[in-house]
Design goal:
single chain, mainly alpha, Arc Repressor Mutant, subunit A, two-stranded antiparallel sheet, 13 helices, 4 strands, 4% strand
Length: 322
């Protein structure tokens, strides 16, 4: 079984689908839903593109599914009958097949894991065949493999520690981390570490044993709706950053426009004769009789704005009639 796959994707609106609503309405509806989710998880563990195959070869029978799901055989058969009726499951070449598996799952990622598993198994078998080789040769091959493995593990450790930084999980020892990477595929530990770190950031609960805590996620991980993988979070962060950059550019442009207009306004005021300036002062006083006792500097500032606004209006009228 492709047990290197340790999580699957579930659509956040899964309970809005007609098939799920119909299942819930049936007798023992909750049990049927549990069997449906167990069947999807089993398909992920099998990693056979939606087929339920033991060790990638033998189709699961109803009896085998009842045993694996820990449910009565009649209940499992009732569930499968409903799944078949609602086109959630098909029978292809004698094996149960989840109809929409490739639509919702990261099939390419699962294929990669399956190939990694095949390579690892082939390497293990090859090592067994070499037991009769000379001792010196065995040691040389062993050391070369170990060196390569250690180098790769160090790279993965750095990546995992970066994900765990700022959380109590960062206290996990080098030995514990190395054991996790060797026990599970590195991708599995990386995904588990990212989820565990995000979970802590949301809940802020005490973690006394980082190694054991992370181990539980490596073995059995159910991803809730709120979790977003790093690529999604990074995309959102970049979107927010880009929006802030845009707002900053707009603010700079606005300030530049205001400074340019203020300079043009001052130059226009300086270009007026004293007689024209006084006329603008008088016009402003006429429109604001309650501000008769203003100081000269403040009055000039307001008169300057009035003069500029009138000039802008005249330019607008001239442009529209041209």
């Amino acid at each position: 079984m492709g047990s290197d796959v340790f999580w699957i994707k579930l659509h956040t609106r899964i309970f809005d689908s007609e098939s799920i609503i119909l299942l819930e309405s049936m007798p023992e509806g909750d049990t049927l839903l549990i069997i449906w989710f167990k069947m999807q998880i089993l398909a992920g563990k099998c990693n056979a593109r939606g087929y339920l195959l033991l060790n990638g070869e033998r189709p699961y029978s109803d009896e085998m599914l009842a045993t694996v799901f820990r449910r009565p055989l009649n209940t499992v058969r009732l569930a499968i009958s409903a799944f078949l009726q609602f086109k959630m499951v098909e029978v292809v070449d004698g094996a149960y097949f989840l109809a929409e598996w490739e639509i919702h799952q990261n099939v390419s990622g699962m294929d990669k894991i399956r190939e990694q598993t095949k390579v690892r198994v082939a390497r293990h078998r090859s090592n067994k065949k070499n037991v009769t080789a000379p001792v010196t040769l065995q040691v040389t091959l062993s050391n070369a493999t170990e060196t390569e493995t250690e180098t790769e593990i160090e790279k993965q450790q750095q990546k995992i520690r970066l994900l765990l930084s700022g959380t109590p999980l960062s206290k996990i020892s080098e030995k514990e981390l190395k054991i996790l990477i060797k026990r599970h595929v590195s991708e599995r530990v990386i995904q588990a570490a990212d989820f565990a770190a995000e979970k802590w950031r949301r809940e802020r609960k005490e973690i006394k044993n980082p190694g054991g805590y992370l181990q539980t996620f490596c073995e059995d991980l159910v991803v809730p709706e709120w979790y977003e993988p790093p690529e999604v979070r990074n995309a959102k962060s970049e979107e927010v950053a880009e929006r802030k950059r845009t707002e900053a550019r707009q603010m700079e442009e606005q300030l530049a426009d205001e400074e340019r207009e203020a300079l043009e306004r001052d130059n226009y005021w300086c270009s007026l004769s004293e007689e024209e300036r006084q006329k603008h002062r008088d016009d402003f006083r006429a429109t604001a009789p309650f501000m008769q006792d203003l100081e000269d500097d403040f009055l000039d500032g307001l008169a300057k704005l009035t003069a500029w606004d009138k000039r802008q209006q005249m330019n607008t009228i001239t442009s529209s009639t041209a």
